[in-house]
Design brief:
Chain B: It comes from Fulvivirga kasyanovii. The complex is a heterotrimer of chains A (329), B (176) and C (747). With 329 residues, chain A is α+β, with helices and mostly antiparallel strands. Chain A is built from 13 helices and twelve strands. The longest helix of chain A is centred in the last third of the chain and has 19 residues. The radius of gyration of chain C is 27 Å and the shape is globular. The chains are: A alpha+beta (329), B alpha+beta (176), C alpha+beta (747).
Chain lengths: 329, 176, 747
């Protein structure tokens, strides 16, 4: 690790000021991914602003009937929060499918959104990686790309976003509240993460001096019909090869609302709203699910080692929808 | 916030190695420490305080050997900075036994032969205690999943599970 | 207190230290003025270092020195000096010897600084320029460059064909030709390799090393650095797993020693987890099997060939293809074993080296044959059961495999098996059952031990062996205590110290048989001395008594014929005015006796898997294994050894794969997030039975060893269960979900 200076902010304004005042500064909260990457010199800030004391560490009801997850609430506290368990069980499931209990006890909700990819080449400084070192190339395209994207990749980067939590948040249409020197704004979840294009070094649309203050869940939690399926190389403590968050709103066996978000397949949690709309006002049955799955994977493109992901994604979508259609609690 | 390494050595000397004062309670003992920002809790314990019971198995949160209890919660001590925990209370493997003898989980690890080389063991024990406090493990599958953040290369998992089951049972009996 | 300990499920004597964090591993020894070394690894697989610029790193306050090939003092001249007790044929790698890069992640510099943080930082500021040469790391594309896998290496049996394979194969009714593959694996013990080297005032060294042989480390350091052995003390009381990774001295030992000698300060060097992928792995093998049988299943001909990888500088050999002759009754066996030299580090013995992989392919092929014959796979094994090693034409010193098959099959419920593949479903899951045999060598190596009995009845026994989690401390204690009729609490076992009497490397499942026997012998010697002294006591009932007349029990010497006649051991010591009794002994294998037999452990493994038909996710739900490992010294620790072996088998079958990026010539998933080792959630129910038969040919104490046998056969049993579940034969490990997904799916 390279040396850095440290300061602790007691409130949001100080935090934002501190990060603007120091060159090459970053916020640190849970630190579980930031320190990991600093240790291998993939990230090397000169200053860290500790934001673990700025409040924003509670879960509260919002006026519109939704739920506000403070950015500094840990992943574990979120997953086990009674309101989350009751109203947003999809989110609880997705969080608990990720990382390990120890990591979930430290990692925060804001930080979860900012996790970097697990691409081997991003993690290995001796190899080419446009995300790590813009312009150096992408070793994964012709390398070992079993983990890599099948949607939305570019010739510059085929990395995937590793979060499970974010897949659920994408399905739930969460909103990310952020604050920066110019005030606060709301970023719809689908606009929070970005596709790599020709600037894969940028994972999100969060500005460098902005800080996440909360993740807001809309009132609709799909507690009756949801599933999170995570396919991975071991039964726990592994990143997703393909994961699916599926939610349905069903009335008299007719689908009124449907969301399908995929993880492990793109640079961001992947949604295809056009495909999802195929389900609306249709019966909740296998034929319909197969059709939407086919529509989603139609635009998938694989690389040498990840071709299986396309069919795995298709099947996982169908399975997830089948299960979601049957969950009654 | 450019993502570039420091250019000059002056950068390094000026800010880096500035020490900050923190106080920590580790296993009931208070420590007043001068720490550099880049020192992890794990390195603080092992390299600076000679509390080597907490193990380094990967230094990246990928194995769980460094699990400690921070304010009673299990975390990976390798992925957190000491400087961020001013005033915190930490329990490590060295702090579990008391005058009455071993913590019941420690004793159960011995009885069930829930380790071989012993290197992941302090982390497994702290993780077990953390798991019991969390109170979320209801089934065998829960236990297995919630103990999966601790890799045991010797493969003592099934014996570790026996310890956790026994500990949960005892805990249930003690807390009506 | 009862003093018969052997065979009992005793708690580990080192358990207390391990559960309290007071067991100290190589990186945990401190010394005043200790400094930290961080190794820099090469970024290329082959070429030369054009320049190493250490200027910016050395500028940092607290950075003491950076060792590179440019400033490392002249050390031993000869490659031979770098040979260790486990070196394969060839010229060992010499760290910091020249500008030549022979493999990716080769250690090219050591940064030493006052603190670990500083050393790590300084390492980032060292700039290296390379002259890159083309490398080749691809086994599959280089088979035409293969050379014979031969050469002298302890435990290695060069391939040796018997009978007339071609003729018999051509003539047979049923033929099978198949090919198996498995990826590379890395040992990844939880403790990363580390050495702490203390420079002593007299120029000697005290070295805390992660090793499976303190004497090997001492030898290595002595030869390379030209220091007399008696001035080097290597200590390794606890080893955080090794599985073979500690059989050879690894480069952190070289680095820490170099720095300590040059700086005349204590130096600690601990590798990083990625660096744990830089010094030896279980090599990839491509194995071809041809099996021929008559319709009743009798094997007529077997050909087992393997292509494996090694480095350019050493020819790593292991027993991959040598197992069919030992496992089955077949007169015509062809064995071919070839190596391809590639630009990588030399492979390294990893738990059941050769056996884990060779038997995987053999036992998978046997399963294929069984289906081809429409025969129960267990029946096929029994049909070809052999009481004789066909290669050596010698009987087995002991073999309870038949009983292992029976016990394990019964416990598993094998008789309920539906022979039809893809015949059992549970919801989305296909359920499959598979079985396999396992085999490993049973060996006793020479070992020495010493013991000292004190007047208070306390006994200390010692041997320069290791306990890498195997339970060596505990079985030494049990054997010593039982031999002298003492409670275990009165016995202290010492190991992992080069000043103790000789023991060979702790590996290959040899330690219990070897060191155990030495401990037994040395305690017998003390017993004889005690009896002799007892006979000299006035009115002694044991005047002129012989060892066969007495037993040592409950801290007494007891008349075998009459329990009421006894003398407490402490009384003997007191009445004879003995402060201590000290003995040393050497236990040599009885080669004459041993050479009349083939000596092996065996196992029968049965596995159940559940596979999501659509998603391919595999869960091993049950493993039942029965083990033929001779006498079991400690039911608890031996059970753990087998348990660990089975876990390794699950991990090998489904998860482990060090993936080489051939463009870079570098293992690319070099951490524990992406190199998957089985976690708790992957675990099946594991049922273990020992079918004991004391084997006094393998070792006088009847022990055959349990370190490897638990692993051998497990991957095959799982692979065979996957076939039974899905009807799909997957011929490469690990069996990941993409391989197991059905071709077509209902969804």
């Amino acid at each position: 690790m390279r040396p850095f200076s440290y300061s602790r902010a007691e409130d949001i304004d100080t935090a934002v000021n501190e990060v603007t005042a120091h060159e090459d500064a970053r916020f640190i909260a849970g630190g579980t991914n930031l320190l990991d990457l600093m240790k291998i010199d993939v990230i090397h800030p000169q200053h860290l602003v500790d934001i673990t004391h700025i409040a924003h560490d509670t879960i509260e009801n919002t006026e519109d009937g939704g739920l506000r997850l403070g950015a500094l609430v840990t992943n574990a506290d979120t997953a086990y929060h009674p309101e989350v368990e009751k109203r947003y069980p999809l989110l609880a499931h997705a969080i608990l499918a990720g990382a390990s209990p120890q990591l979930r006890n430290k990692a925060t909700d804001g930080g979860n959104l900012l996790q970097r990819t697990r691409c081997y080449y991003f993690y290995d400084k001796t190899t080419a990686c446009n995300k790590r070192e813009p312009g150096s190339g992408c070793a994964a395209i012709d390398g070992y790309n079993r983990l890599h994207a099948i949607f939305g990749a570019s010739e510059h980067c085929i990395a995937t976003h590793p979060s499970d939590m974010c897949v659920a948040l994408a399905a739930l249409d969460a909103r990310v509240q952020v604050t920066g020197p110019d005030g606060s704004r709301t970023i719809p979840f689908e606009d929070f993460h970005r596709l790599p294009g020709d600037t894969p070094e940028k994972d999100t649309n969060l500005r460098e001096d902005e800080i996440i203050t909360s993740v807001d869940l809309p009132p609709k939690g799909f507690a009756d019909h949801y599933t999170y399926i995570k396919n991975r190389d071991r039964a726990s403590y592994a990143f997703a090869l393909v994961s699916v968050a599926a939610t349905l709103e069903i009335e008299d066996n007719v689908i009124k609302d449907a969301r399908i978000a995929l993880g492990g397949v793109a640079h961001k949690p992947w949604r295809n709203k056009e495909a999802e709309s195929l389900l609306i006002d249709k019966p909740a049955d296998r034929d319909g699910f197969q059709a939407v799955a086919a529509a989603i994977v139609k635009e998938a493109k694989s690389f040498r080692y990840n071709e299986f992901k396309i069919e795995l994604a298709r099947r996982s979508i169908v399975r997830a929808l089948m299960e979601a259609s049957q969950t009654y609690q | 916030m450019r993502n570039q390494p420091h250019e000059t050595i002056e950068d390094v000397r000026s800010d880096a190695i500035e020490k900050h004062h923190i106080s920590l309670t580790i296993n009931g003992t208070s420590y007043n420490l001068e720490v550099e920002p880049w020192t992890s809790v794990l390195d603080l314990l092992r390299e600076h305080l000679n509390l080597t019971g907490t193990k380094k198995g990967c230094d990246h949160g990928q194995c769980g050997a460094c699990t400690i209890l921070l304010e009673g919660k299990r975390i990976n001590s390798c992925l957190t900075l000491a400087i961020m925990h001013d005033g915190a209370e930490i329990t490590t493997i060295e702090g579990l036994a008391n005058n009455d003898g071993l913590h019941p989980v420690q004793q159960a690890f011995i009885e069930h032969d829930a380790f071989q080389c012993g290197y992941c063991t302090p982390g497994q024990i702290c993780s077990t205690i953390g798991l019991i406090h969390e109170g979320k493990a209801k089934t065998l599958d829960d236990i297995r999943d919630l103990m999966s953040g601790n890799i045991c290369r010797c493969g003592a998992y099934n014996n570790i599970v026996k310890v956790v089951q026994e500990a949960l049972e005892n805990h249930k009996n003690q807390t009506p | 207190m009862a003093t018969n300990h052997i065979g009992k499920p005793k708690n580990r004597v080192d358990g207390l230290k391990k559960v309290t964090g007071s067991a100290k591993y190589a990186a945990e020894f401190n010394a005043p003025g200790l400094v930290h070394g961080v190794v820099i690894s090469s970024a290329i697989a082959k070429g030369r270092i054009k320049a190493i610029d250490t200027h910016d790193a050395l500028e940092i306050e607290g950075v003491l020195h950076i060792f590179t090939h440019e400033n490392t003092p002249g050390l031993a001249w000869f490659d031979l000096s770098y040979k260790d007790m486990d070196s394969p044929p060839g010229a060992p790698f010499r760290p910091l010897h020249s500008d030549e890069i022979q493999f990716n992640m080769q250690p090219i510099a050591l940064v030493v600084a006052e603190t670990l943080e500083l050393a790590r930082f300084a390492a980032l500021r060292v700039k290296v320029e390379y002259e890159v040469e083309t490398h080749n790391t691809k086994l599959a594309d280089s088979l035409d460059e293969a050379i014979e896998g031969k050469g002298f290496r302890a435990g290695f049996e060069p391939p040796k064909s018997i009978g007339k394979f071609e003729e018999a194969y051509e003539a047979a009714d049923i033929k099978l030709e198949t090919e198996y593959f498995h990826g590379a694996e890395h040992h990844n013990p939880m403790e990363m390799h580390a050495s702490t080297v203390i420079y002593e005032e007299d120029g000697g060294l005290t070295i805390y090393d992660k090793t499976q042989g303190v004497l090997n480390s001492r030898h290595y350091v002595s030869m390379i650095f030209g220091i007399k052995r008696k001035k080097i003390k290597v200590i390794s009381p606890f080893v955080g797993g090794a599985f073979g990774s500690g059989l050879r001295p690894q480069y952190q030992l070289f680095m820490a020693t170099l720095a300590a000698l040059e700086l005349k300060r204590p130096v600690k060097v601990e590798l990083t987890r990625p660096q744990m992928f830089s010094f030896g792995h279980r090599p990839i093998t491509i194995q071809k099997l041809k099996l021929a049988a008559s319709p009743d299943g009798s094997l007529q001909a077997v050909s087992h060939s393997a292509y494996s990888e090694t480095s350019r500088f050493e020819k790593y050999v292991e027993n991959v293809v040598n197992w069919p002759k030992k496992l089955y009754r077949c007169e015509n066996v062809e064995e071919i074993y070839k190596l391809v030299q590639l630009d990588m580090y030399t492979p390294l013995d990893m738990r059941a080296p050769g056996g884990a992989t060779g038997v995987y392919a053999l036992e998978s092929a046997m399963d294929e044959l069984a289906y081809k014959l429409n025969m129960n796979p267990l029946e096929l094994r029994l049909r070809n059961y052999t009481d004789e090693d066909k290669g050596k034409e010698k009987p087995f010193s002991s073999k309870t495999l038949k009983e292992c098959y029976r016990v394990a099959a019964e416990k598993f419920g094998w008789s309920q098996r539906n022979p039809e593949p893809r015949s059992t479903r549970e919801g989305h899951n296909l359920v499959g059952w598979g079985m396999a045999s396992g085999i490993w060598d049973a060996m006793q190596t020479p070992a020495r031990a010493k013991a000292r009995l004190s007047a208070d009845g306390k006994l200390e026994v010692g041997s320069a062996t290791a306990d890498i989690g195997t339970g060596t401390y505990t079985i030494m204690t049990q054997i010593a205590a039982e031999t002298l009729g003492l409670p275990m609490e009165q016995v202290t076992a010492k190991l992992g110290d080069s000043s103790l009497p000789f023991a060979f490397l702790e590996g290959g499942s040899t330690t219990a048989a070897s060191v155990g026997t030495a401990v037994k012998y040395v305690c017998d010697k003390i017993a004889r001395k005690l009896l002799k002294e007892a006979g000299k006591i006035d009115d002694s009932p044991f005047k002129g008594a012989k060892m066969e007349d007495v037993v040592f029990r409950d801290e007494n010497i007891v008349d075998k014929q009459d329990d009421s006649v006894f003398i407490p051991i402490t009384e003997v010591m007191k009445l004879r005015g003995l402060g201590t009794i000290q003995k040393k002994t050497t236990a040599l294998p009885n080669f004459l006796k041993q050479n009349k037999y083939s000596r092996n452990t065996h196992s029968a493994v049965f596995a159940e898997v559940k596979i999501d038909e659509d998603l391919g996710t595999i869960k091993v739900t049950r493993i039942v294994t029965a083990i033929d490992a001779g006498r079991i010294l400690n039911a608890k620790t031996a059970h753990s050894q087998i348990l660990g072996g089975v876990v390794w088998g699950v991990s090998m079958a489904l998860e482990e794969d060090s993936f080489m990026d051939h463009h870079y010539g570098r293992f690319i998933n070099h951490d524990l997030a992406e190199y998957h080792i089985a976690v708790n959630a992957d675990m099946p129910d594991i049922d273990i039975t020992f079918v004991e038969e004391e084997d006094h040919v393998v070792s006088p104490i009847g022990v055959k060893g349990v370190g490897e046998i638990g692993l051998v056969g497990v991957a095959a049993a799982i692979g065979n269960a996957v076939y039974h579940a899905t009807g799909k034969r997957i011929r490469s490990l690990p069996i990941t979900l993409d391989k197991a997904m059905s071709e077509v799916s209902a969804i």
